[in-house]
Write a structure and sequence with these properties.
The chain is mainly β. It has one domain. Helix content is about 5%, strand content about 35%. It has one helix at about 110-115, and strands at about 30-40, 60, 70-80, 90-105, 140-150, 150-165, 180-185, 195-200. Strands 1, 2, 3, 4, 5, 6, 7 and 8 form an eight-stranded antiparallel sheet that branches. A hairpin with a 2-residue loop joins strand 5 (about 140-150) and strand 6. The model has no long low-confidence stretch (mean pLDDT about 90).
C-alpha cells in the first residue's frame, strides 16, 4: 500500500545527499571582513559571491562594538490541538521575523539618522543638524554583513529592512557613545535575507 501523500501545504524533508561528518573546517569564526557592515538604498544588488567588493552605492556603515552584528529569528505558531488529545497534530507558522542588531560607534549623518529613524541630513560646514520628528515615514535600507575566517567568507544581505528597536544612547565618560540599532527584515519579493557562504579570496 502506498504511503499517504503529505498535505499540499506541508513540505517533506529531503534526503541528505551525503552523510554529514565532524568537519572542523566548517567551523566559522565571526571576524569582520574589512569594513564588515554596509548600507545601501533598497533595491541595490549585493555582490554575487564572497569575493566581490561592495560597489557603490553600497557604503560603509562604520565601526561597530566588539560584539559585532547579531542575526536573530523568531516565529509565532498556532498549534492545532484536537479535542481528543492534549498533543498538537500540527503547528502552523503565523508569523516569521528575521532581525539584525548592531551597536554603531561612529557618529555621522548616516548613523545618527538610522538610530533615530530619520532621513539622512546634509551636513553644512561640518555641522549635522537634524530634528527628530514625532511622525513621518519609516526609513528603509538594504543592509550587508561581511565576515571572513581566513579564506572562508560569510555574507548576509537584507534587501529591505527598517529600524524596529533602538537601545539607550549612554553618554558615559571613557566609553564610546553607542548607537544601538535593531533592524527587521521586510518582505522583498518573497525574500527576507540572502546568505552567501564560500571562498573570500
Amino acid at each position: 500500500m502506498a504511503p499517504a501523500a503529505a498535505p499540499p501545504d506541508e513540505k517533506l524533508t529531503p534526503t541528505p545527499l551525503a552523510p554529514f561528518t565532524l568537519d572542523p573546517t566548517e567551523v566559522q569564526v565571526g571576524t569582520a571582513n574589512g569594513a564588515g557592515l554596509y548600507v545601501a538604498p533598497v533595491g541595490t544588488a549585493p555582490p554575487a559571491d564572497c569575493k566581490t567588493a561592495w560597489a557603490a552605492p553600497w557604503a560603509i556603515l562604520g565601526y561597530a562594538s566588539d560584539d559585532g552584528p547579531t542575526i536573530g529569528q523568531s516565529t509565532d505558531v498556532n498549534e492545532l490541538i484536537p479535542w481528543q488529545s492534549a498533543v498538537p497534530l500540527r503547528t502552523v507558522v503565523t508569523k516569521r521575523a528575521v532581525t539584525v542588531h548592531f551597536i554603531l560607534w561612529q557618529i555621522n549623518e548616516q548613523t545618527i539618522a538610522m538610530y533615530f529613524d530619520q532621513p539622512v541630513p546634509t551636513p553644512v560646514t561640518g555641522l549635522i543638524s537634524m530634528d527628530v520628528l514625532s511622525a513621518g515615514a519609516q526609513q528603509l535600507y538594504a543592509i550587508g554583513i561581511d565576515s571572513a575566517d581566513g579564506t572562508k567568507g560569510l555574507r548576509v544581505v537584507f534587501p529591505r529592512a527598517s529600524l524596529s528597536d533602538a537601545g539607550d544612547m549612554q553618554i558615559k565618560r571613557g566609553e564610546a557613545v553607542p548607537l544601538d540599532c535593531k533592524l527587521s527584515a521586510l518582505d522583498s519579493g518573497g525574500i527576507l535575507a540572502h546568505v552567501l557562504v564560500g571562498p573570500s579570496v
